[in-house]
Amino acid sequence: MIGLALVGAMSILGASTKASTSASVEGVLRADFIVTSTTFRGFSPVVAQDVKAVPGVGVVSPIRSAPGQINKRVEVIGGIDPATVSQVLALDFQQGSVAGAKDGFIVDDETFTSSNLKIGQSINVLFADGNTVKLPINGTFARDGLLSGYVTSNANLVKAGQPDQDSAVYATLKDGANPVTVKADIDKALADLPTVVVKDQSEYKASVVGQVDQILAIIYALLGLAIIISILGIVNTLALSVVERTREIGLLRAVGMSRKQMKSSIRWESMVIAVFGALLGLGLGVIFGVSLQKVLRNEGIQLLAIPWGQLIAFLIVSALVGVLAALWPARRASRLNVLDAISSE
Fold first, then answer.
1. Per DSSP, what are the bridge partners of residue 77?
2. Taking a C-beta distance cutoff of 8 angstroms, is the pair 151, 107 a contact?
3. CB 68 within 8 Å of CB 112
4. How far is it, in rounded angstroms, from Cα 275 to Cα 38?
5. 105 in helix, strand or coil?
6. How far apart are CA 92 and CA 28, in angstroms?
7. Shortest CA distance to 139 belongs to which of 104, 106, 103?
8. Is 114 helix (H, G, I), strand (E, B) or coil?
């Protein structure tokens, strides 16, 4: 029950994360191509220049990030090109505009509210290398999965002594350009950089969702151990039940119950235990999963998605597991000697 409760909760959290990520990419991403690194390191600004030089490429906008400390809290400080970012990302501003990043910070609305910030308030950032920067808050925008937290211009990050490296490069197509041809040309232009990859929108979306699936696979593998233990628990419970009801089993056999009927009775008992436990576990899992999604809304999981098909599949598998768990106890019960069973205490 506990194992399935955790599996159910993680299934809902995973489905909600994927739905939120997909919606964020589809609703915010205007770029046709995204250039990223396969490592945790950034790459040279020359990459953006090489992409810009490819025929058919329109706007190119580099994105940066740097770890920093604000009010003793570690934050990822984002960097953008204010002149081009609006053409590759659909930012929804509540206060100010993207131009505010030129000489200050723009902050996502949830961080702005949760940190009790104010427009015009100066923010001190201590970077990991010891450099500092002090800039005012000039605007707020709706948080999404692609841009959040404290964001300033790439130029301000360089002035603060941060590495002159991009984390990603977003690029658009010119009108009439062939996306397949342009992507192939970008790949050729970056062929000497094996750690840099180019993806179109669909590939980028699939890669982000794939990362969530990988994390869920690891979690499911760990929870699978708990489920295996629960299966052994069912087997042990049924085995003890057979021992404790030896006299009852003998009486049932004496009044005409066949071995086949006895096996069927034990199997049904096991299935009922498994299904009942699965229903309770999945019910708790749904409650936990929905609660987790509500708690993590500020972390970007905006949409609630409940994978009913997957949960029903778990229930069916639980019933089958119940049947398998009953094989040995049912066989043992059916092979009891009737006279010995009746005479047992």
1. 66
2. yes
3. no
4. 44
5. strand
6. 9
7. 106
8. helix
What's the CA gap between 220 and 217, in Å, rounded? Answer: 5
Q: What are the domain boundaries of the chain?
A: 2-17+208-343, 39-194
pLDDT in tens, 321-334: 888 888 888 787 77
Q: Which residue has the higher pLDDT, 298 or 108?
A: 108
Which amino acid is present at 171? A
Find, among 111, 107, 102, the residue nearest to 154 by Cα. 102
Give strand ranges (E) for 165-214: 168-173, 196-200
Question: Phi/psi zone of residue 142: left (φ > 0), alpha (ψ -120 to 50 degrees), beta?
Answer: beta
Q: What was the pLDDT predicted at 215?
A: 83
Torsion of CA 136, 139, 144, 145, to 10 degrees: -30
**Kind of pairing between the strands at 73-80 and 93-95:** unpaired
pTM above 0.90, yes or no: no
Beta-bridge partner residues of 123:
135
Look up residue 307 and give its two tokens.
Answer: 């994978």
Alpha carbons 167 and 201: distance in angstroms, whole number: 17
Closest CA to 61 of 91, 16, 31: 31
Nearest-angstrom CA–CA distance, 48 and 186 = 10
Take residue 154 and report the two structure tokens written for it: 């790439």
Provide φ and ψ at 75, rounded to 5°: -130, 155
Element spanning 224, H or E: helix 201-244
